[in-house]
């Protein structure tokens, strides 16, 4: 009897949004293809520019690390997706628009204490990541304006960017701002293609003089952290999955997304390592020769950061709205 009451309590908690109303994604849910755009856009971001330098520090071992972390990311993404499906099977289909889906997994597994702990970790991680995106976007915008003799500090631009993006952050769930996912992914993919072309132009000037440092164990942990960060967007996965039309196929989405991401990562990292060698800066863009292509890449990356700022902040915003009893979007 106690177990039945506990299960009923969990079902009520997970299926009832604020105000006692039920809601679901229904026909407005995201397709598999759209969720691929979300994951690619949220993952392949600022971490990409640091991968060639990480590869420089540990040599070709870094390629094996990237592949291993990609496989690990696929597996853990699959586990998260499976957990969401199990919650639906146990607590009903009305869990599709949970506003805190990741902490909900902890609640069903071990109770409210674990849910609170996961919420704290999730909020700190996503807020910190959002701040990084905001800082990078402000610095890139300041540098871009400086080229046109418009001098505005990155600190002032941070305020402007927040004011401009604030209304977009009011969108309820990923289904409400799916164009941002397409923009984030497309800008990064186009920027990657242009970056490859720019590095190819540098081959005659830089390849012969490049020097590749030998592998050193003391650099391994730092490089591992850089590569790990480039794959670290799992906190957003349950939020994307809750808006899917077919959440049970989330594993397929993860496999496709991480395959695309890994191809981009390996291509940029290996080419940058081979072309620039020991002259690679922490940020790859600082190693590339200035020119129209590089300027275009910087603009595209800045647009990408604007989009990922909103995407990274959304799980935190949804949970804050839940705590404040703000009704969900229809």
UniProtKB/TrEMBL annotation:
Keyword Nucleotide-binding assigned: no
Source species of the chain: Elysia marginata
Domain Amino acid transporter transmembrane: 30-324
Transmembrane portions of the chain: 30-51, 57-80, 116-138, 150-170, 177-200, 220-240, 252-276, 296-316
Cellular-component GO terms for this entry: vacuolar membrane
Region called Disordered, residue ranges: 1-21
Organism superkingdom: Eukaryota
Keywords: Membrane, Transmembrane, Transmembrane helix
GO molecular function, one term: L-amino acid transmembrane transporter activity
Name used for this protein in its record: Amino acid transporter, transmembrane family-containing protein
Its membrane topology: Multi-pass membrane protein
């Amino acid at each position: 009897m106690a177990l039945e009451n506990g299960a009923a309590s969990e079902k009520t908690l997970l299926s009832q949004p604020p105000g006692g109303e039920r809601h679901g994604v229904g026909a407005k849910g995201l397709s598999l293809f759209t969720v691929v755009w979300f994951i690619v856009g949220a993952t392949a971001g600022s971490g990409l520019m640091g991968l060639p330098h990480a590869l420089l520090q540990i040599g070709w071992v870094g390629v094996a690390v990237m592949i291993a972390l990609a496989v690990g990311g696929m597996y853990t993404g699959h586990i998260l997706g499976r957990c969401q499906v199990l919650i639906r099977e146990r607590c009903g289909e009305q869990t599709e628009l949970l506003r805190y889906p990741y902490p909900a997994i902890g609640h069903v597994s071990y109770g409210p204490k674990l849910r609170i702990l996961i919420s704290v970790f999730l909020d700190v991680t996503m807020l910190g990541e959002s701040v990084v995106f905001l800082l990078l976007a402000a610095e890139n915008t300041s540098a871009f304006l400086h080229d046109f003799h418009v001098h505005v500090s990155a600190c002032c631009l941070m305020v402007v960017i927040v004011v401009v993006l604030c209304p977009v952050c009011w969108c309820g769930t990923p289904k409400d701002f799916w164009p941002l996912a397409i923009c984030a992914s497309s800008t990064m993919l186009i920027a990657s293609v242009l970056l490859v072309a720019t590095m190819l132009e540098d081959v005659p000037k830089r390849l012969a003089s490049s020097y590749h440092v030998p592998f050193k164990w003391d650099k391994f942990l730092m490089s591992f952290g850089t590569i790990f960060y480039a794959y670290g967007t799992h906190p957003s996965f349950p939020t994307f999955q809750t808006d899917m039309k077919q959440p049970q196929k989330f594993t397929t989405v993860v496999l496709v997304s991480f395959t695309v991401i890994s191809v981009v990562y390996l291509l940029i990292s290996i080419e940058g390592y081979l072309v620039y060698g020991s002259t690679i800066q922490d940020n790859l863009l600082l190693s590339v020769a200035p020119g129209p292509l590089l300027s275009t890449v910087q603009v595209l990356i800045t647009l990408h950061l604007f989009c990922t700022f909103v995407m990274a902040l959304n799980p935190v915003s949804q949970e804050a709205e839940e705590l404040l009893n703000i009704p969900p979007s229809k």
